[in-house]
Amino acid sequence: MKLLSMCLLLFPLMLLSACTRVPEGVEPVQNFQLQRYLGHWYEIARLDHSFERGLTLVTADYSLNPDGSVAVVNTGYSKGRDAWQMAEGRAKFVGAEDVAHLKVSFLGPFYSSYIVIALSDDYKYSMVSGYDKSYLWILSRTPTMPKPVLDEFLQKAKAMGFPVDQLIFPAQEAQPGNKPSVQPST
Question: Which of 100, 128, 136, 183 is 20 to 30 A from 120 via CA?
């Protein structure tokens, strides 16, 4: 009975830690410089998930919190609802701060992996994975990405085993009015 009780206590912890793992065949960017990564990013492509379904004009803003964690503000426009949606979160490094493996939370104590798996030398283009290969985002500092850079990222993602044929390329056209402020609440 004691073993069963211990297993019941450990199982949720194992599930939570599984959400911050690195998928097999994927490596976080090394020599990562957080200060250079902070700022505004446009979502060029993503694998579909319910929390972003139907959103266009998706952006992410990263800034440093006083405690050293990263404030994350994601925004996107839902044409179906004719409204902006915003999610605020917090990210922390899983290990060394020069390895681009962070954990991000939008729901209190529950974290999931945020792994930068490709990054241009000038920090203009980035590819991010979650804890498994059903999560993938391609980001750019501008609303568009040069085709050669996009093709290179798609080849890398395919070689790592991501289902690139399932990527969604959300529109980044002119933005409707009343976009929410991207300043994180403190």
Answer: 183
Torsion angle of the four alpha carbons 147, 152, 158, 159, in this order, in degrees rounded to the nearest 10: 170
Spatial CA neighbour of 56 closest among 143, 153, 166: 143
∠71-128-57 over CA atoms, to 5°?
Answer: 70
Listed by start position, the domains of the chain span 2-168
In this predicted structure, the answer to whether residue 92 has a pLDDT above a threshold of 70 is yes
According to DSSP, the β-strands at 167-168 and 125-129 are unpaired
CATH of 2-168, one of 2.40.128.20, 1.20.1530.10, 2.30.30.140, 2.40.50.90: 2.40.128.20
Q: 106: burial class by Cβ within 10 Å (0-12, 13-18, 19+)?
A: middle
Residue 108: its pLDDT value, please? 82
In tens, the pLDDT along 6-20 reads: 222 322 333 334 487
136-160 pLDDT tens trace: 999 999 999 999 999 999 999 999 9
